[in-house]
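note to self — DONT lose this again. spent like an hour looking for the file last time. sequence + predicted structure for the chain T wanted, 278 res
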Amino acid sequence: MADFLTELRRALPRLAEGLLVTVEATVLGAALALLLAYTLGLLSRSARRPVRGAARVVVEFFRGTSLYVQLFWLFFALPMVGFRLEPLACAVLALGLNFGAYGSEVVRGAVAAVPRAQTEAAVALGMGPVLRLRRVVLPQAHALMVAPFKNLLIQLLKATPLLSLVTVPDLTFQIDQLRSATGSTAASYLLLLGLYFGMAVVLSLLMNALERAAKARLSDQVGSGSGGRRRGSRGGGGSHGGAMASDDNAARRGAGRREPDMIRKTGPAARPGQERTV
């Protein structure tokens, strides 16, 4: 164990570099996956059948094939047809394509979960498809997407050890070098488990905060809309009540002005032999 700790101290700079490569691959792969998820998810709901069908074919292909095979095809087979990518670029592309296909189903389901009455109300207000999607549908769908996206992000992080198979010097690669140098297999891979668990916890906390923020923003938007309608109702009621009060006052003033005339006209009856003045 003492030899392992001594070698571990020497390997700390390499482990830090490997950790940085793992984080970089995770962030870049997640960004590409998010872009593809929105693109394919929205195209899957297109009214045009060819567009919808093409999007579904792409999604089902990358969901139905192994990430391991996709990574190996990009690294070993793609150069045979004249395209050569750097190992890290192959890894990011494979992660983005695979998890983007899974994420597209999250986007499609979240958009479909928005009540149809919301879309119909936006149409009644004269909003076009793009404005309707941006102002009405997506703000409500985002709050539903965060939790599934958190699971996919953690799954993507846990898939990064495959990068060492295509010579990417990630954290798993550096831990494997440490294991070879010390012969301590259990201690080396236990350390790897702990590091991945720590990264997963950090990602979970970040995504939980993002989910709370999305729900709070949606609640604020709904609350502000309802408050505006209530204020408008109170203002309208106040104006109506004021108008009614003004009408009552005017009626009373008019009645007051007419009352003496009526009294004079209907005064005491004239005595016999006298004319009654009107």
